[in-house]
Amino acid sequence: MKPTSANERIVLLDIVRGIAILGILLxxxxxxxxxxxxxxxxxxxxxxxxxxxxxMLERIFVDGKFMAMFSFLFGYxxxxxxxxxxxxxxxxxxxxxxxxxxxxxxGLIHGILIWFGDILVHYALLGFILLLFHxxxxxxxxxxxxxxxxxxxxxxxxxxxxxxxxxxPEMIAxxxxxxxxxxxxxxxxxxxxxxxxxxxxxxxxxxxxIAFYPQILGLFLLGAYFAKRRVFHDIPAHAGVLRKLCWWxxxxxxxxxxxxxxxxxxxxxxxxxxxFVLLGVLLGSPLLSLGYIAxxxxxxxxSSQHSPxxxxxxxxRMAFTNYILQSVVCTLLFYGYGLGWYGKVGPAVGLLLALxxxxxxxVWSRLWFKRFSIGPLEWLWRGFTYxxxxxxxxxxxxx
Length: 399
Prior knowledge:
By secondary structure, the protein is mainly alpha-helical.
C-alpha cells in the first residue's frame, strides 16, 4: 500500500477535528445552560432517570476526551504549519507568533463578549511555550509530553488523592443562592447584566483552567511528536502503533472512566473511587482520546473514498468558525437576550439539542465549501497571520 497522500492526510485530520467539535459541543452544552457554581460544586439539578443516564454516558465517553483530542490536533497542526511555511521560504517563528497573537485576540473577544468558557486564550498562551519546542527531536517531544501528562497525577497520588469534599448544609445553601442568582441574570438579564456576570465567570474559569496547563501542553507536544513521526502521512506504516493505541490506550482510558463513573459513593469505596476519578480524568481521558483518534484513522484508511466519516470533514475544515458559532447560537438559545432557556434544559434534552445544532453545522459547512475555499473566521485568522488578503492565497487545503 502506498503512503497516505497529502489530500487524504488533510481530510483525515479534518474528520478528527470535526468529531472533536461535536464532542466539545456535547460537553459545553452543560456550561451554556447551567450555573458554573452548580457544576463546580457538583450540586445535582437534574435527578431524572434519562438525565442521569445521559450524564453517566457523557462522563464515561465524552467529558475531557474531545478537548484532549483538540489539544493533540493543535500540536500536530503547528508542525504542519511549520512544514508548509518552510516550503514557501517563510519565517516560521514570526508567522506562528502572529498567528498566536490573533488567536489570543479572538479568544478574549469570545470569552468576554460571548461565552465565559473560552479555551482559545489558553491555547494561544500555551502556544508560545509550544513554539520553543518546534526544533526538538521527536524523542525529546515524547519525553516532555509523557512527563507533563504524568506530572499532576503523580503529585496528587504522592500527596494522597483528594476526596470529593462533602458540602455542609450552609455551603449548599450558599451555593443554591448563587445558582438562583445565575439563573436570574443569565436567564432573564439584559446584555449588560449578563456581560458583567459573564466577565466574572470568565475570570473564574480562566484561573481554574490554569491548573490543567501541564495536561494541555503535554497533549500539544504529543501531537507535535506524532507530526514529526509523520504518523498520519503514512497510516499503513504506523498501523501497528495505532492499533496499540486503540487497544491499550483506549482500553485503559475506558476502564478507568467506567470505574470512576460506576463505583458507588459509599465510604467503603471512597478511596478506590477517588483514585479512579483521578486516573480517569487526568490519564484515562487523554488515552481514550488517543484511542478515538487511532480508531478513526484506521477506519478511514480502510475506505477513505466512501467513508461516512467524511461527513465530518467540512465541519473540521472550519473548526475555528464552528467552535465560535456554537457559542453564539447556544448563548442566544439560553441567555436572557435570546430565548432565555437557561436552567430549563437538562442533560437529556441538551444532548438532543447539541445533535441538532451540530447537524445544522454539518449541512451549512458543506454548503459553505461549495462556494468558498476557507471558513470566514479562518479567513480573518489567515489575514492576521500573513498581513495580506487571505483570499489571494487561500487554497482548499486545511490549516
